[in-house]
Amino acid sequence: MPPPPSSTAEALPAASAAPLLSTARAVPWMAGWLGLMVVMAVSGRQATRELDVFQIMEVRSLIGLLMLAPLVHAAGGLPAMRTARPGQHVLRNVVHYGAQYAWFVALTMIPLAQLVALEFTMPIWTLLLAAAFLGERLHRWKAIAVVLGVAGVVLIVRPAQAGVSPGQLIALAAAVGFAVSVILVKLLTRTEEATRIMFWMLIVQSLLGAWPALAVWRWPSPAVWGWLVVIAFCGTFSHYCMARAMRHAQATVIVPMDFLRVPLTALAGWAIYAEQIDLLMVLGTGLILVGNLLNLRRVPTGR
Q: In whole angstroms, what is the distance from residue 40 CA to residue 47 CA?
């Protein structure tokens, strides 16, 4: 942080320039996050055309461990990865593994834009879970955010028209699972560093998926090996991009940028797979994103 200015004349430019500079530095990292997440969705769909989801997730975890190795080394090597909370790491990663599996399965069943829109209900479920289990207060703006999120899901899923499809239910289950995982990560971060959390995520999920992956194993073609490497790269370094963006700007700046993932993924689905988007899908997605924005609203103490 720069030293305080010595005069009011110096204070005005400094106060106005700092947020712009911070946001400008965050934008390239958010662009990396957005690009990697969209590419991972397309890569996942391409890989699932040939391989079982269990095998894709196992290879992703093993390659991810290799990619994480430099960060582990920089953090102090394997001794620095020791943890006093192995049970909580296992619990978090059992939930996260299940959510990831559901996400990949839903990826093969519903349009990309619909999958990502339903994924964005995760902050709504996180809000409810934080209120229930972490004692966080559910003020009126957050309650409105929940209502908007649920209304958005109804518009996207449209149960009164043709019922809820299995793919939609699986996508919603993935969003709830990711929300539970976020709560468990929040508890872990009280004592654990980010690299250690990522390390145990890859270790535990590699062990969880080893037997299911072997049961369905088939040797990937050279083209699918390429998609698997892309999935592992995107899954590992997209989070690094997000972390770097968070260093340069507040969540109230970063999260609205992440909303661009919905139209970008929809555009990819339209361009690559000829997936169509209707008005109710757009309106439902809009309600979910507005709900997420309200969830970011700062509320004065006492409300």
A: 10
Token digits for 84? 């006093």
Strands (E), 64-192: none
> Helix 279-295 and helix 251-258: axis angle, to 10°?
170
Count of the separate structural domains present in the chain: 1
199 in helix, strand or coil? helix
Q: Is residue 14 part of a domain?
A: no
Q: Does residue 275 fall inside a structural domain? A: yes
Q: How far apart are CA 244 and CA 75, in angstroms?
A: 17
Domain assignment present for 300:
no
Q: Considering the domain boundaries, does residue 3 fall inside one?
A: no
Q: What is the pLDDT of residues 99-155, one digit of tens each?
A: 999 999 999 999 888 888 888 787 778 777 777 776 767 777 777 877 887 888 888
What range does the domain containing 290 cover?
A: 21-295
